[in-house]
């Protein structure tokens, strides 16, 4: 499991096993298109029931939200990704 640290126009940075890992949204979109089809604009799947995002980097990075404001944080992350011009794919 990873912690999302930041979202930039070209990608995101995570904390994975105490290491910072940056991923490219372009790479995620290409991987998503290969695995799931679509327009090539989706970078991750999202599941509001589990408050989870799975980014299609190599390897996949899963972010699961916990705590009191997880619903609000979920929507903020989704909004930040979509402001970059990329999309999230709903699997709820």
Report on the architecture of this protein:
The strands form 2 sheets. This protein has a 4-stranded mixed sheet with strand order 6-5-4-7. A 3-stranded antiparallel sheet has the order 1-2-3. By secondary structure, the protein is of the alpha+beta class. It has helices spanning 25-36, 70-83, and strands spanning 2-7, 11-16, 19-24, 42-47, 52-55, 61-64, 87-90. It contains 2 helices and 7 strands. It is globular. It has one domain.
Task: Give a topology summary.
Blueprint: E1 2-7, E2 11-16, E3 19-24, H1 25-36, E4 42-47, E5 52-55, E6 61-64, H2 70-83, E7 87-90
Parallel strand pairs: 4-7
Antiparallel strand pairs: 1-2, 2-3, 4-5, 5-6
- Rg, nearest Å: 12 Å
Unreliable spans: none
Mean of residue pLDDT?
92
Helix content: 25-40%
What class would the helix/strand composition place it in? alpha+beta
What letter string, H or E per element, gives the SSE order? EEEHEEEHE
How far apart are the termini?
A: 19 Å
Regarding quaternary structure, how should these chains be classified?
A: single chain
Jot down its keywords.
single chain; about 90 residues; alpha+beta; four-stranded mixed beta sheet; three-stranded antiparallel beta sheet; about 30% helix; globular
